[in-house]
Amino acid sequence: MKRIIYLLIGGLLLGNVSFGQAVDDRAVVPVAVTLSSILRLNVVSGGNVEFSFITLADYQEGIFNSPPYDTRFTVASSVDWDVVMYSEEDMLVSTDDIDGTGMELDNIGYHVEANGDNNETVLNIPSTEANPSALTNTEEIIVGYDGTNSNAGDINDNDFTIHWRCGTQEGGMNPVSILEQQLAADRYATNVFLILRPAE
Question: What pTM does this model have?
Answer without folding.
Answer: 0.84
